[in-house]
Amino acid sequence: MNRKVILSLLGVAAAVALLFYLSMSGNAYECKVTIQFAGTTLHRTGAGTSEKEAIRAAVESACGTLGLAMNDQIRCQNTPPVEAQCEGPSSGY
Q1: Which residues contact 82 (CB under 8 A, 6 or more apart)?
Q2: Highest-confidence segment of 24-28, 35-39, 86-90
C-alpha cells in the first residue's frame, strides 16, 4: 500500500473512534420510566448527562410513540412518570 492510503485509513479510523467516544461519553445516566397517559401505559428508556435529562428523554420517547396531536403531546410530556429507575454515577431518584 502506498503511504497516502495508509495515512487516510488511519485518519478515518481515528475520526470514527473519536465520534464513538464522544457519543458514548456524554450520557452518564440511563433511566427506565413507566408513564400512563390517555389510558395507555408505556415503558421507555432514556439517557442523558443528568437524571432529570435522562427521565425527560425517556418520557419524550414514550409520548412520541403515541402519535398524538401537539396539545396532547405537550400534556403527555408534562405528565410525571409513574415509576423511574435510574443508573448513573450517583443515582438518587
Answers
A1: 33, 34, 35, 36, 41
A2: 35-39
